[in-house]
Amino acid sequence: MSARLEVKDLRAYYGQVQALHGISFTLEEGSVTTLLGANGAGKTTTLRAICNMVRTTGRIEFDGKPINTMSTENIVKLGIAQVPQGRGTFTRMNVEENLQLGAITRGDKAGIASDIERMYEQFPVLKQRRTQQAGLLSGGEQQMLAVARALMLRPRMLLLDEPSFGLAPLVVRDVFKVLGEINRRDKVTILVVEQNAQLALELADQAYVIETGEIVKSGPAADIANNEDIRKSYLGY
User: Fold this and answer.
1) Lowest mean pLDDT among 66-75, 82-91, 130-139, 220-229
2) Highest mean pLDDT: which range of 34-38, 56-60, 171-175
3) 20 near 75, Cβ under 8 Å?
4) Which H helix or E strand runs over 208?
């Protein structure tokens, strides 16, 4: 298995404030990795840094090629899709228009139409709501739409920021089940930032724990989940 993403000595800044302090990690192709930690630890900043949405130093390589200096738009074109915290759906557009927007960098009309139908199979509730404004969907439906829209890119890597935020437990389970299916079926590499550490560790192969902009623990997700000291000290359960 080869590395899909390599992050080396990554430092990130908001103005003069340093948010990341030299973190390094690797995502293997086809793997699911979770980044865990408290609010303000630097998890969201890490996702933003990968997509060049904050000022950084260090090195980020995707499929062996540096992407630090690329624009966010060109990074997306490489096949890196992000589902931001708060879902980020276009509320005044309907469901199908949101899905079409997810494929805006693609030119294969037949493939796009086929993928929209595939999203409706994966998320049946979206098919029922296909002409409804995204802003009128429930929180869970909006999260499903955000994931489906990202998948319309046909990404090689999917970044998710707090996909369980504000959702009912049953909806959260449904979303995570779909993410697992996407990973197994399409071999999409997934990096998920998540407050629900227990659920994220069930999904992931590898886990990194971040605290005040530094990685303090890492290892196979099962080992992190079973380490009582790590759970009590860093994960809060």
Assistant:
1) 82-91
2) 56-60
3) no
4) strand 206-211
pTM of the model: 0.92
User: Which pair of tokens denotes residue 144?
Assistant: 């499903």
Q: Is the pLDDT of residue 27 over 80?
A: yes
Q: How many Å apart are CA 57 and CA 59, to the nearest integer? A: 7
Beta carbons of 204 and 34 less than 8 angstroms apart = yes
Run of H or E including 219: strand 214-220
Whole-number Å distance between alpha carbons of 192 and 104 = 24
Residues β-bridged to residue 25: 7
Give residue for tokens 């605290």.
211
Domains parsed from the chain with CATH numbers = 3-79+157-235 (3.40.50.300), 92-154 (no CATH)
Supply φ then ψ for residue 74, to 5 degrees.
-75, -30
